[in-house]
Amino acid sequence: MNTFDSIRTVLYKKDHLKYHIARRIINESSLRGKAIIEFYDEDDLKIKISEIRDKHKSKEVLILNEFMGRKFQKCPGSKNVICCNYYLLNTCFNCLYNCTYCFLNSYLNSYGIIQFVNLDDLGDLIGSFSRDTNRILRVGTGEFTDSLMFDEITGISSDLIGSVSSLKNVFLEFKTKSSAVDHLESIPVKGNTVLAWSVNTPKNIDLYEEGTSGIMERIDAASNAQCWGYKTAFHFDPIIRYDGFLEDYYKVIELMAEKLDPSKTAWISMGCFRYSPGFKDIIKHSFQREKLTLDEMFQGKDGKYRYLAKERADIFRRFRDKLEIYFPGVFIYLCMEDSDMWYNVFERDYGKSEDLENDFSNYLLEKFLTT
Fold first, then answer.
1. What's the pLDDT at 371?
2. What does the CA dihedral 264, 353, 337, 91 come to, rounded to 10 degrees?
3. Would residue 29 be called left, alpha or beta, if left means φ above 0 and alpha means ψ between -120 and 50 degrees?
4. Is the pTM for the entire model greater than 0.90?
């Protein structure tokens, strides 16, 4: 599994050492003997990058910088699909792992992992928003990165958990493919923190999730998290089919059931492999041995290419049936599917995303917040 030790060079601006995340990373980088390069402004950063680009791969370079956009926002979702109305914290751009199907591969001109350092106000942003609503808020940090890939160094999750653990209507999710979670054991008050794992079959992990932890390492990490008092969640996304894929996914679900407590599992999502127009050419160029795009795909209502609707519905129903046996009572939902698919799989009549959000919120209230 790739870790912070995979980083070879760190670039930073001296003025950014006023942020504690920057200080943590630079101090740890110094202790581990990494190359540390100072830049003075954005033009100088471009020069420094041009000097090291031929020496280091993109995922071996960590760039510390400020984020000048919106740090807290609603998930944009996709056009013409039902979304769960999740909220996002922008903490980092790019990832240690090299997943073939990841949409970040679309950013062809991007170089390095860009760790945002001006994050001291994230807890306050969540807190101020949560006071203005009576809804349950599900908030995550993993839109443009892996939430826990080297969190033991940045301390982002520990800071956030400490800031929002008292907010009863906030479920803070950290989604990851890492098994490095031991640093979270000693946090005294977990609140409604959810440690979540993307799960896939061993074959798909080997083929398409380079640098990540294995499936048993993820399940063991989730089991430990439950023992420490955390809620957990799991994302079967993307489901990638191949000869015998259903049987392999069933084995993963059975392995999870052996180790995990459904009462401590907050939710499980399902989503089939999909990609935007143009992405096929990008991943075929970057991953010349990939087989993902050889499957027959069709453009859906949101413009993305997917398996046929009837084939997806059959996959989702089979997953639902299996999950309901081993994880009874856990909220299972579809990621980025339209209202027709929801009705075909769950017989739920969702005309708009708020319908799903309301069901999701009511479930969380009843399962975790009703005393």
1. 57
2. -60
3. alpha
4. yes
